[in-house]
Amino acid sequence: MIIKTADQVSRFTWLKRFPIPRNFNVTLESRIEPGRAWPATAGAIRKKAFDIYRYDPDSGRNPRLDRFHVDLDDCGPMVLDALIWIKNNVDSTLTFRRSCREGVCGSCSMTMDGTNWLACTRFISDMATPATIYPLANMRIVKDLVPDQTHVFAQYAAIQPWLRSKTPKPEKERLQSREERSQIDGYYECILCFCCTSGCPSHWWNGDRFLGPAVLLQAWRWLTDSRDEAKDERLDNLEDPFRLYRCHTILNCTRTCPKGLNPGKAIAEIKKMIVEREG
What we know:
The chain is an alpha/beta fold. The chain folds into 2 domains: 28-147, Beta-grasp domain (Ubiquitin-like (UB roll), Roll), CATH 3.10.20.30; 150-165 and 176-276, Alpha-helical ferredoxin (Fumarate Reductase Iron-sulfur Protein, Chain B, domain 2, Orthogonal Bundle), CATH 1.10.1060. 27% of the residues lie in helices and 14% in strands. A 6-stranded mixed sheet has the order 1-3-2-6-4-5. The two termini are 35 Å apart.
């Protein structure tokens, strides 16, 4: 199923954890251990269990899964509300990112019941029991549900995501027709939550050189913008066996975009533009 709106969640239930062979070179420090089971609030009638990934690098302990019981009658409807409730009422050390609570900033992206999404737009009622929450995959974990996004933002900076012009600066703004403006619809809305990049197997395998779906969607956003005058330079920067062509059209990126965008289509458009340029 292609996710077309932020209200949709895939109807498929994917495997939450993949079994790993014993000799897979996974360090003992990476193995997730059973954590603490926090007691439910006394008097709570409607309760929901959450298994949440916990990791504190300063403690020297392995990652663990703690179980919390949220009083649904004292909590908002979204997963982010549940996390805030846990932090305020149960364990103040629980660490996660959040900001707008409106699905705009992308701060609260995480893996919930095996699907990358935004905690502020995922309903608690849509979660399994117990619900499972992990940080985004394929990123070093700073603490608990906070991934280190230094690398993916460095890749974003590498495409020079700003308007590049060669003609003299106009007295006012650079104008576009309505048709020209419509060309960036479906691309400018990206909020850089990196749900797609975290879910991309090609980025798992070649994340040091493959730019990943979020960055490539942003690259196409500038390539298709009629006001930008650095198309050839941008294509030269992308035309590389790894930066662009490690995409194997798996389309996990499109399935897991909480904004309903299609990074797979954007990557295909870049490849098409490179072919057309070569004639």
